[in-house]
Every structure is written in structure tokens, then in C-alpha cells.
Design brief:
Length: about 675
């Protein structure tokens, strides 16, 4: 008997579907079986940061079963995921079975070990057969990279958290090596928004007629001097560009009189054929961004759905930053496109995309379906959310291998005798190409306009606008920024975004992140006191070093020492400091007991009202965000509440007298129906 070890029962079931030979037995570890304990730091800093791993007590029966089966097995095959965490799980299983000689910091695999490691990026019969035919050994460099990351995060979390408790007085606070940098993006953006000075300006749109057709055109310039100007703000995380016109309120009357009294002709009609190419296939970050933008899924939900699709053998591995695609899949895609859409839509040669990430593992693939012939609707065990995400992945990958769209772009200049230039443009799709899957917005089709054709101005509109500050982050834009700056890796984006919300450091309103007062206080303090540790380039360099450890080009103890020595020096200094940070927000309410001001404070459960006269007055009351809706059952106020797992829902303020509650605002229309 050969024992195969995977992480989850779903993955085990998929293996069993393909391994009909009874010589294989598949067992699931249910995640990590060995890790650092939660109740202590468990890192021996004086002895090369040696970790003190313990077995997971909750998995004792699983551990005993795996050990028992391994003793009877001819070969133990480790089939965990093909990334750092997957390699670490395989490593700890091998240690558990006595197949690793642990001699920190240099471990080695014992001679004549019966343990084999297989690596694959999709759970299909062909991929598994290929993996079984080419077994490997555990990649100890990759394990060292995972352990270094784990130890760095443990040192920061367990050393900094007590410092925050001392400074702010809240024992539920925590700090993270990467999460603090992500929080800093949000806090710095909020500062930039508050500092931004909004200005009003006008854009001018004229409607012109040639006695048959009407066109709308925007005022561009007068005597070749443009009205519209671009401005650039230098932000903490890059540059923000916005455009406005120089037209102010005082200019309107003069412009209106002159423009209306002018006569106009078409001075230029420019037509050109442009090619529009499809976007690249999905990688982890872009899948999370599109799922957030299109479906409103959080990154955590997207990764949970993708994990399920992967373990069921429906998509390739979903934690990837590579655009690489397997040759056999490209052949399948070409045939599928020709059959479904016609030969004119398929490419003569596959379209390949260059991976941007310098540390991407090219052995990995982009996220794609494993079989284009699968009817996803027949999988009854999948939810509608699974199917929507699968279809998103399916359409994206098919589009990458379709011909580009051919589009005719027409630009028309309308010139007045007084020098006023208006301009408009439109597009006409000549050949849809990949746009049969990604249709663009409705086309505006005009009849032919010719040079020197006279036009009549039929109406003139002055549209007032305000300059807008840079937008707050949503999940998609935050993940995009983290990826572009090289902070974190595909497997960490979702946990980062989840953690800063769970710690009450940010609130999500209408899909955008707003830093809380406690988030701002924590960010400002850590950024000021540990300027290098939570600086972008320092974090990026540390991520690069983890990748170099994975390839054997860096020594993990050297990386740990280079980080820890300056970190500990600052930590010691800050622990001696008597500085205290008071975190509270003012409100416009008075305490009903002592009439002092009420303020907002925070607990691990969220925001609440408290008396500013504490500890003399200990009055508190819960805070609920009210929305402009009434309960359909009792006409009470509708407020926002959260479950223990931080899922938002809408409830009547008069609970428990009124038990109305719904998950979505749209459900409020169902008079009195319960969620």
C-alpha cells in the first residue's frame, strides 16, 4: 500500500476519483499538524531563532492515524500544495514520521527514506500521472523560506503587541510585519484626502447639427490654447493625476455669448483602425480584484471559492503570480474557440503573456480551467457563487486566446471662426474578436461627416464639476497596490485585508476602507517609532530576501539577524518610554449620567460610546451605524450590525421587540420578511 497525504478531504476525494488502483490510500491532514504554539513566542532568539514547534492537539487522532498508516506503507507520497505553505506541511509530516533529521538551522532528509514529494498545479488524471512518474524530495530551501517568514511574523507580532498594549492600553491590539504597511497605505491616503483642496471648474459641451444628424462635442481649446490641464499629486504610494479645465464661473457669460455668435465647420475628420487586445489570464491578485469589482466578493471569499474549485479539480492552483500557460491547454483552447465561435476567432499561434513579477515561479501557471468541456452547472455541490467565479475564470482564459478586436475610431474636430475648437470621437466595432465574450458598452453610431462641412450650434451646456481627491482604497485597489509595490505574495493578500478589518483598524463603508481612530493611532505610532521596519522599500527588500532563501541564494539566519537586531534596539528604547496614546473620537452627545461629553472608544468587538469622565463615570452604550431606511414592520430605524465573524447585516433598532433583519438592503422591500 502507498500512502498519499493531502491537506483536505475535498482534495482527497478528487484524488480518489482518479486513483482507482487500490494500492493507494489517500489521507487528509486538515491543514498544519505542527506549528508554533499560540500562548508564547516559542522562538529561541539566542540560539539562531530556533522555533519550538508543537503538535496540534486538536488533530491528535489524525496524527496517530497517519503515523499508523505510514508504518504499513511501502511509500509515503506527500501531495500538498506547490507553494511555501504546502512545502512546510509536507516537511512537518516528514518530521512527524521521523524522515527528517532536524538539526536547526540545517535539516536534512534521512538516507533511504521512503518519503516522496510530488508537485502538480492542477488535480487532473494526467497531471497526477505525470507527478507520480517524476517524484521529488522535499525542497528544504522552500521550507526555510516559509520558516523565515513565519519567524519574522512571530517576532513582530509577539514583540510589538505588548508594546501597543502598554502605549494604548488595549490588550487585543496586534501588529504585523506586512499588515501594518497595508494599514499605512489606507491611513496615508486618508491624510491626503483631508489635505486636498477641492476646486470648482466647468466643462463645456456643444450640440451641433448638419441638418440630418446631431453630434455632441467638448470644448477643447481657443486659438490652440487648451482649456483642459492635467495636475499631479505626489502621494505616499505613488502619483495621482487628475484633469480639470481653466474655465471658472466668471468666464461663463463671456464664453456663452462668443460661442453662440460664432459659426462652425468640421475642420478635421480622422479615422483609424485600432486593435484591442484581451487582458492577460488571471493570477491571484487580478482574480481577487475582478471578483471584488464585478461581484462584490471580499478577497477572503474569493480565495475560499477558488480553493474549493481547485480541490475539486476544476481549476489550476489559485495562488500564483505567473501568466504561464501549459502547451496542451493552449491546443485545447484553440480547438474550443474554433468549434464554438469559428476559425476566424482562433489564433494561428498562441498568445503568450510576460509575467511582470520578478520573483514569479514560472513552473506555476496562471489560473485557468482544467477542462474546457466540463459543464459547470452539472456540479450540484457547487453554489451559485462557485459557478460565477468559475465562469469568470473560464471567460477570461478563453478571451486570451482569441483574436484581437478590430475597431474603427473616428475623431471629429469642430472649429469656429473665432478659434473655438470642439472635439468628439466614437468607435465602431468592425470585428469583435474576444469582445464576443467581453462586449463593450453600446456603440454610438453616427453617419459620415466630412471635412469643411458647415454645422449649426443647437445647444450649449456648461457642466460644473469639482476636483476630486485621490479615492479611498477598496479591496481591489489595495491588493493591486500591494502587488505593484512587491509587498506580500499571492497567498497573503486575503489574510492581510481580513486582519486589518478584524483588528478594528479600518472600517468598510460602501466598499471603501476608512481608517478608524485606533487604526490611525497605531499606524502613526509604529511609523514614527519604527521608521525603517514599516517603510515600503524595507518591506519589499525583505520579501525579496524570502524569495532568495527559497532559491538557496540567501541564508535564513542572516536575514533574521539583519531584521531583528535593529528592531530589538528600537523596541527596547520604546518599552522604556512612558509615552501613552489616548485613542478616542469626539461625538456631539452628552453622558446621561454626568453630562460630560460622550466619546467613541474601541474594544475587540468594535466601536462603542463611553463617557469622557472615565473612570469617575463608567457609562457606556453600544454604537450602531444608522442608515436612511425605516423598518417595514414597525417603522423603527434600520441600523448596521455585524455577526461574530464580522459579516454585515441590517436590523431594526427596536430589537428584541422587533426581530426584523436582512442581509442586503434590497431585501428591505420585502415588507416584514425575515432573512
Amino acid at each position: 500500500m502507498n500512502l498519499i497525504i493531502v491537506e483536505s478531504p475535498t482534495k482527497a476525494n478528487t484524488f480518489n476519483k482518479y486513483l482507482k488502483d487500490t494500492k493507494y490510500q489517500v489521507e487528509a491532514t486538515m491543514g498544519h499538524v505542527r506549528d508554533l504554539p499560540e500562548n508564547k513566542i516559542a522562538v529561541d532568539i539566542d540560539h539562531n531563532f530556533k522555533p519550538d514547534y508543537i503538535l496540534n492537539k486538536k488533530k491528535q487522532s489524525i496524527i496517530e492515524r497517519i503515523k499508523s498508516l505510514a508504518q504499513k506503507a511501502h511509500t509515503v507520497i506527500l501531495a500538498t500544495d506547490a507553494d511555501r505553505e504546502g512545502e512546510a506541511i509536507s516537511y512537518h509530516i516528514a518530521c512527524l514520521l521521523g524522515q527528517i533529521k532536524e538539526n536547526w538551522p540545517k535539516s536534512s532528509i534521512i538516507k533511504n527514506s521512503n518519503i516522496k514529494r510530488i508537485v502538480f498545479h492542477e488535480i487532473t488524471e494526467e497531471a497526477l500521472k505525470e507527478a507520480f512518474n517524476h517524484p521529488q524530495t522535499i525542497n528544504l530551501n522552500l521550507v526555510n523560506s516559509q520558516q523565515t517568514r513565519r519567524l519574522l511574523d512571530r517576532l513582530v507580532g509577539y514583540k510589538l503587541s505588548p508594546l501597543l498594549w502598554k502605549k494604548i492600553g488595549k490588550r487585543w491590539l496586534s501588529a504585523g510585519r506586512v499588515q501594518t504597511v497595508a494599514l499605512r497605505f489606507i491611513v496615508e491616503r486618508e491624510k491626503e484626502i483631508l489635505q486636498f483642496k477641492s476646486e470648482s471648474f466647468y466643462r463645456v459641451v456643444g450640440t451641433f447639427s448638419n441638418n440630418q444628424d446631431l453630434i455632441e462635442a467638448k470644448l477643447i481649446s481657443k486659438d490652440s490654447i487648451n482649456y483642459e490641464k492635467s495636475y499631479e499629486i505626489h502621494l505616499f504610494d505613488g502619483k495621482y493625476r487628475y484633469t480639470k479645465t481653466t474655465i471658472k464661473n466668471k468666464d461663463i457669460n463671456l464664453l456663452e455669448n462668443e460661442i453662440k455668435q460664432d459659426s462652425y465647420t468640421i475642420s478635421k475628420v480622422e479615422e483609424k483602425i485600432i486593435k484591442r487586445f484581451p487582458p492577460p489570464p488571471f493570477i491571484t491578485s487580478s482574480l481577487q480584484q475582478d471578483a471584488s469589482r464585478i461581484f462584490g466578493y471580499s478577497s477572503k471569499v474569493t480565495m475560499r471559492l477558488a480553493q474549493s474549485l481547485y480541490e475539486k479539480g476544476l481549476i489550476t492552483y489559485h495562488r500564483t503570480d505567473s501568466f504561464n500557460l501549459a502547451g496542451h491547454f493552449l491546443s485545447q483552447a484553440k480547438q474550443y474557440i474554433a468549434e464554438k465561435y469559428g476559425g476566424e476567432y482562433s489564433l494561428n499561434k498562441p498568445r503568450l503573456y510576460k509575467t511582470k513579477s520578478k520573483n514569479a515561479q514560472e513552473a506555476h501557471e496562471a489560473i485557468r480551467p482544467t477542462n474546457l468541456r466540463v459543464n459547470i452547472s452539472e456540479h450540484n455541490e457547487l453554489t451559485a457563487s462557485h459557478q460565477k467565479l468559475y465562469n469568470l475564470i473560464f471567460n477570461r482564459i478563453i478571451a486570451t486566446q482569441m483574436k484581437e478586436a478590430q475597431i474603427k475610431n473616428t475623431k471629429v474636430n469642430v472649429l469656429g471662426q473665432k478659434g473655438y475648437l470642439f472635439q468628439t470621437e466614437w468607435e465602431k466595432v468592425l470585428f469583435k474578436g474576444y469582445l464576443v465574450i467581453y462586449p463593450q458598452k453600446k456603440e454610438t453610431i453616427h453617419k459620415e461627416f466630412k471635412n469643411d462641412q458647415a454645422l449649426t450650434l443647437t445647444s450649449l451646456n456648461f457642466i460644473e464639476s469639482m476636483t476630486n481627491p485621490p479615492p479611498r482604497y477598496n479591496e481591489a485597489s489595495l491588493i493591486k497596490t500591494l502587488e505593484e509595490r512587491g509587498i506580500g505574495r499571492p497567498s497573503t493578500y486575503a489574510p492581510i485585508v481580513s486582519t486589518i478589518q478584524e483588528r478594528q483598524y479600518v472600517e468598510k463603508k460602501d466598499g471603501r476602507f476608512f481608517p478608524t481612530s485606533i487604526g490611525i493611532a497605531v499606524c502613526n505610532y509604529l511609523s514614527k517609532s519604527f521608521p525603517n521596519i514599516f517603510e515600503i522599500n524595507f518591506t519589499v527588500n525583505l520579501e525579496d530576501n524570502l524569495d532568495l532563501i527559497a532559491t538557496g541564494e540567501k541564508d535564513m539566519i542572516q536575514v533574521l539577524n539583519n531584521f531583528y537586531q535593529p528592531f530589538q534596539a528600537i523596541l527596547t528604547k520604546e518599552m522604556k518610554s512612558k509615552e501613552h496614546i489616548d485613542v478616542q473620537e469626539k461625538t456631539d452627545e452628552k453622558c446621561p449620567e454626568c453630562h460630560h461629553d460622550l466619546v467613541f472608544r474601541y474594544s475587540r468587538f468594535g466601536k462603542f460610546y463611553a463617557c469622557s469622565n472615565y473612570p469617575k463615570c463608567k457609562f457606556t452604550k453600544p454604537y450602531f451605524e444608522k442608515i436612511d431606511k425605516k423598518c417595514p414592520k414597525c417603522q423603527g430605524d434600520i441600523i448596521i450590525k455585524y455577526t461574530r465573524r464580522k459579516k454585515r447585516f441590517y436590523s431594526c433598532r427596536n430589537y428584541p421587540k422587533c426581530d426584523f433583519a436582512v442581509w442586503r438592503l434590497s431585501e428591505l422591500k420585502r415588507n416584514g420578511n425575515h432573512s
